[in-house]
Amino acid sequence: MAKVGLFVTCIVNTMRPEIGFASLKLLERAGFEAEVPRDQTCCGQPNMNGGDKAGAKEFACRLAKLYASYDYVVAPSGSCAGTIRTHYPDLFDEDDPDGVPVKELAAKTWELTSFLTEVAGLADVEASFDGALAYHDSCAGLRELKVKQQPRALLKTVRGLELKELPDAEVCCGFGGLFCVKYPDVSGEMVRKKVADIEATDAKAVAMGDAGCMLNIEGALARKGSDIKVWHVAEVLAGLAK
User: Fold this and answer.
1) Are 69 and 39 in contact (CB under 8 A)?
2) Between β-strands 159-165 and 72-75, what pairing exists: parallel, antiparallel or unpaired?
3) Which of 131, 137, 134 is nearest to 113 (CA)?
């Protein structure tokens, strides 16, 4: 049995641990031995985005060592998975020996829905959802890892779920990691537009693959007094979204 190390991510660990439990449930249902290493830390994306290349390299080397014994590394986040898979290798020169295990880590790292469909070959899930659900494409997963059809394919197998497509589905919600801190006015306007698009679908809930986007959209909906629920796609696929 192949062994999967689940990279939970910082936001999931501190704000929405239910996403981690849902991810474990999905991986085990798909036939994998899944574990969450206790000593995992941030992937270093904030360091990378803030120009701290040395700090990002330290995180990369640490995670490469921590996950060396796993066949796969899976993250319920296109953002963190994209950082490891796409950007980690660029931190190291070709002749840097520290880059070898990091590149091995990058090659075996996957976003959750991409892993379930492309590696596990999952074509159906044991879940149900009552009503219409909109789906938001998180930027990093979409653009760095080409995660688009994978979550939709799985969501369409959830019993009772009516999938609603958002207008301008591929437009950013305004979170963008440090972007929302550096440009709060622009970020705020972007999430207000995203919330209006969600409301226009008449869906009772919206799902996505990144917890950062979730907190941003959930906060904007709450400020409007909306009763639209926000779920991570893992929670829906695992049957935990009610």
Assistant:
1) no
2) unpaired
3) 137
167: helix, strand or coil: coil
> Count of residues for the chain?
242
128-237 CATH? 3.40.50.11810
Strand pairing category for 159-165 and 33-35:
unpaired
Buried b (16+ CB within 10 A) or exposed e, 155-168: beebeebbbbebee
Q: Tokens 């907190």 belong to which residue?
A: 215
* pLDDT digit string, tens, across residues 65-83: 999 999 999 999 999 999 9
Distance of alpha carbon 12 from alpha carbon 213, whole angstroms: 12
Q: Which ranges in 16-98 belong to alpha helices (H)?
A: 17-29, 45-49, 53-66, 78-82
Q: Extract the tokens encoding 139.
A: 């930027």
Which pLDDT value is given to residue 30? 97
Which residues fall within 8 angstroms of residue 201, CB to CB, at 6 or more apart? 132, 134, 164, 165, 166
Q: What share of the chain is helix, strand, coil (3-state, %, to 5)?
A: 50, 15, 35
* 154, 116 Cβ separation under 8 angstroms: yes
pLDDT tens across 19-30, in order?
A: 999 999 999 999
* Mean of pLDDT values over 40-57: 92
C-alpha dihedral over 172, 175, 177, 179, to 10 degrees? Answer: 80
**Annotated domain spans of the chain:** 3-119, 128-237
Q: Rg of the chain's alpha carbons, rounded to an integer?
A: 18
